[in-house]
Structures are given as C-alpha cells and as structure tokens.
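Appendix B.2, paired examples.
Example (i):
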Amino acid sequence: MTTMRAAVFDPATAELTVRDVPVPVPAPGEVLVRVAACGICHSDLSLLHGVFKTKLPAITPGHEASGTIAALGAPAPGWAEGDRVVLHAGRACGVCATCVAGGSPDDCENVRIMAFDFDGAWAEYVIAPVTALVKVPDSIPLSQAAVLADAVSTPYAAVTSTAVVRPAETVGVWGLGGIGTHAVQAARLSGAAPIIALDPLLAARERALDLGADHVLDPADPDVDARIRELTGGRGLDVAIDAVGRTGSVQQANRALATRGRLVLVGMTGDTLDLGTELHFSRERHSVIGHLGYRKEHIQQLVDLVATGRLDISRSVSALLPLEEINEGVRRLEEHEGNPIRIVIQP
C-alpha cells in the first residue's frame, strides 16, 4: 500500500478534509504504526480554531493514538511488527543542550509535539520514534488505550507529579470534561479526601460522583466559595486543579485555596490571569503552577494501573467514529453534544 486516508488541516483556509496521502516511511529509530484509535482533544480544537499554531503549510492532527507496529525503520531491540502500542506525543528535538548531553526525551528543552510540529494520527498510519512507544497488553482495548496518551496522562501527571497530591489532602477540580474527569480519578488514586468537583453541567457533576468525587458543586452558584470552605472544615483546598483555563474559573479556584495551597493550571486558553494582590499570595504562601503534558513513565504507570484493575477507563470513550466522520466528531466536541469525555476516531 502506497497511499492512506488521512485528515489534513490547512491553516490558511481552516479546512479539515479527509484525503489520500502517501504512507510515510519510517527512518532508523522510528516505527510505522497502523492506527487503531485516536482521540479528539480540545487541543486539537485549538489548532483548528487558530489558537494554537503550526509552522507547517498542512498537517494531520491527532495526538492521542494507539495501534500496532506495521513496520520498523531499523531493527529495534524489544520491538516487533504486530506489537500493540500507545504513543507518547512528544519527540526530542535532538539539538538542545539537554539532548546533546544525552538527556531523556522527556527533558528536551524544545520538545516537538505530534499533530502540531509533525503529522499526527487522524490517519490510517503514523510515524513515531521508538522512544515514544509503550506496550499495551491484550487485556486493554486499543480504543481505550488511546486516551491514556493525554486525556488521562496529562491530568494524572498534574495530580501526581506537579501538584504532588498526598493522602487526605483536599482537592478541587474545575471543569469535568476529558481532563477534569480523569483528574478526579487520579486524585482518588492518590488518596485525596475530600475531592470536590465543579462543573456547570449537571450530567458532568453526576458522572464525577460516580467516578470518585466526594462532592460536586455548580461553579455558578453564588454560595460556591462558602460551600468549599464548609466542605473542607473551613480551611479551603490544599490543591485546586483548573482544567478550564478561563479567568473566572482560575480566580474561583485561587480563592478556594487553603494556606500553602497549590493551584495547578491545566486548561489552556488565551485568557489573562488576575490572581489578586501579591500581599495575599505572600501571606498565605500560595503556589500557582502551570502544567503541560506528561512523561512517558506516566503512560507506562497508567497502562499498569488499568491492566491490574486499579483504574477503570471503560467509560472514558464516549463515542467511536470512523475517520471519514472526523468533522462530525469535532462538531460534537465543540458543541458538547452528549457531554463527552472522549470521542475517538477509528481509521
């Protein structure tokens, strides 16, 4: 096979079309993966809407991918055609000081991101570095494994590595879509108590209760600040995870912090932050930490947690659509139709 179907985005016209393109050829150190599934993420929407930019004249989006190895660019110890894999979306630049010194690809100072800096996986095949691969056991459906790469791993990394949530710490999560829903589950795994989940949609709040939240609140409730204090014994939150990225949600999460509280910003928008006076921050010893992505080790940990039954992501895939219906999937996510956690494409 020399051609494949792929969704191609033209930044100049903002058009996303499914067309025939050449099947890429892996170089040494790379593999060609037959894509089994790829999620549709809000970051993809940001690319399609021009909030995130690509320097390429045309690009295939999609960075939450799983599949099977179709070909290796060169023999790679431990890997073979047919291996079931989930893909880390990052690729080391190879020229920064960390890369030149032999550092881990996760520590690259100018990491390149699949679907933004090079072609992604809204396609029948995708190229990936061997270093990006994590094996998936037969017990995990590849449609579920795909969402581990970002939808689950990013909030998991935010909770466990950036916020470093400890047992019995109080945690609040703003925004209960794909990122926030899995942040609730990660907080539960970390032993947080209580976990307070906030979203304006009743269905999203009810889902969060089912997946591990102790309490749910409507952020539009005028008494929400007081309710958070009440539910935390008057202290406020040790950790607030904002998966929305809007000025209002960040301010509300910031107000909810206890002394020495940590606010972790996961949602990404162009909104300007306004976090109050420096005096308040210094007196209360608050921290505000930006978070982006995950490390390969987080995907491996999540594969192990799912395989052993410690983490249930069986409800994380809200819909499965063929590649030809990618624009329909984008529309559903944009309009929040069905309150999806993740809509997944199967090329």
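Example (ii):
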Amino acid sequence: MTTHFTAAYADGWAGAVVNPLTRAEAERRDADGIPYAVLLLAGGRPRVLVHVSWADAYVGVVVHGDDGRRTASLDLRRTPTGDLFLRERREWPDGDGPAAPRHATTWTLAGRREDLDQPAGDGGGSSRDWRDEQPPRVAPFPFGAWDELLKLAGLGRAAVTDAPDHDLPVVTAAEPPWHPPRPAAPRDLALLFTVGATVTFGVVDLVPAGSVRLTSGRLVAADPSSIGATPEPPYAVTVAPGTYPVTVSRVRSADRPDRPRVAAARLEVSDRPVVRWELALQDGQSVLDLGNGEFYGFGVDSGLASFADADLWRSLSERDHDGCDAWEDDWLEHGRVAGEQQFVVVEAGGMVAWPSGWGDGSYPTWIGYDDAGSVVCFVADMRL
C-alpha cells in the first residue's frame, strides 16, 4: 500500500506554516545549504515534517499522529561520502505526553548503539542497553526524493506531490521555529590569551608554564590523577615530536583578585595566526555524533588538568596502577601553584598540570589551524 502525501515548503511549522516558500525557493535553499522545512500532508493534515540544513550535515524527520502529537522523530547526519546515517530515533507510541512511554535509540558513526526505554515517560524509571551495531543509512538523494526518509521513519511506501494550495494557517515570523542541532563552538579563544582583556569572570593575565616534551607527537589532555586508573587515549591529530611551550591563561575577578582562576591552557606548536578552530577528537570520535551544544571533553575528578605525551602517560600508568604519585608529589611540594603560579611542571617537562577552572567536570580541547591547514596550537578550555 502506498501513502500519498502533498508537500508544502516553508521556514517551518509551529501550529501554522511559518514563512511559506515556493518549491523553487526551497530547492535553491537546498542547493545553497540554507535551512528550510518540508511539511508533508495526508488528507490535508500535517503528518510529517522534514527539516533540512545541508550546511550542518543535518536532516530531521518528525512524524505526527492523527491527533497532531509526535509519534516518532529521526536525526540524520550526512557523512563526508554523501550518504546519511541515522544518529537517533525517538518513538512515542501513544503520543509525546509527559507520562507517555518512549523509546530512544542512538547510533554512533563508528557503529555503537544505545537503547533507552522509559515506559512511564518522565515519571518513571528507565533502562539502557548497549551493543555494537552499524547505524542505518540512506543513500544520497536529490531534492524532493523523500521516500527513503519516509520508509526509514516506518511509513512504508510513499508518493509525494507538491501542494501549491492548502487550507493550513500561515504566519510570518522573523525567525524560523527550529534551528539545526549544532555542536558546541569555541568561544573567542584569542581573547583568553590577550593580556588585560575583560571576559565574563574578570581580567585576563598570562603565565608562561614551561614546556611539554612530546616524544611521540601524540598529545593527551586529562586529569593527571587518572593515570594508572582510567586509560586516556591521545588526540587523533598529531604534531612532529618536539618540545612545545605552554601558556596558562588566568582570570582575576574584581572581588577576589588574589585568587585567579585558570581559564585555559595553550600548547603552542607555531606562532602563525589561527584562522579556524576544530574540536580535538580521539580515534573513533566524530562531531557528527554530537547533539546540539555538545562536545567531547576530558573528565576531571581531582580539580586538575594536564597536557602530556601519550608515551609518558602510558609509562606512568604502567609504573603506578593505583594512580600516579609523580604529579601529586610535585603539586604538594610546590604548594604555591594552587595559589599564584597556577601550574606545575612534572616528569622533567613531560607534563604540565594546572587547576581546572571551576573544578571537576568535562573540558574540551580545541585545535587551532593556520591558513595552510597546519596545526598552530592546542587549547584546553576551562569554560569559565
């Protein structure tokens, strides 16, 4: 059986068609990577909403029941090869009320699946299950060929024609009612390394924090107390082996100028200008797996962060399986680092450690690139 839909184009849907578009206008947006929405009607009623933003490698599908409530949603991401993989599927079999049963399945691009069941919605317990499984994929498709998306959403065979006329309410709005999910973006990192700059928490000053010797060129950013306990892989992007200076950015607040907090730490590879920033990733991680505002970061449980070479990290872990004493002894011996100096160099320059901003949490590292695509620096952002 084939379900017949008619398509209306717009900025979006919010109980009414927001800023209608012609098919030609929507097709131009599709080609230019500008977000737009497609509303698929069955029997004159909205049943499926498709959100498209190729600039964000994103396609979203929302399925509505006869009563207008959501019954399913899909989050798809376009890979570098052009096909789309299903990052997340959410289902509300009885509609999306707060106490309604729900199920969510999330896949990573590398092939890891997580299932979350909430049989009583927000008001009950939940269960999770993980297993290795490649995500469902959709081949590249031209504008208007929505049938494979509809099939993936569980709607079977579908035929779609345009709906130049419909009886739905129409509104004009300055902003569309949706935005594509975008991972966390770096703040103005250059400002964090500008002496005297004013940021939210206070005024910036800089402290040269020695150098880190990267014998393998593979950088690890991590809580040094996790050595010997939690494996911490290096970042996938490498640099030439060598010794690289580290600068600690501190911020002094007006009410406590005697207690600066570390805002960021920068490992400098070259002195060329940074023209773009990318999130530092470990092998197996992809920004396509991230939801809106999310990032991959290193965890901190001791209030400390550090830069070190992967070879040193491994050797220290092998030397002390109960946690590394090297960083701790030096930290305690140089107690002033927790006050004014705000850093410590350990293992003869193999590691630099510093207090981690507000303390425990998760912190991203950003890689700065020059206009030739070469690495300029790594910046661990303490998110003050």
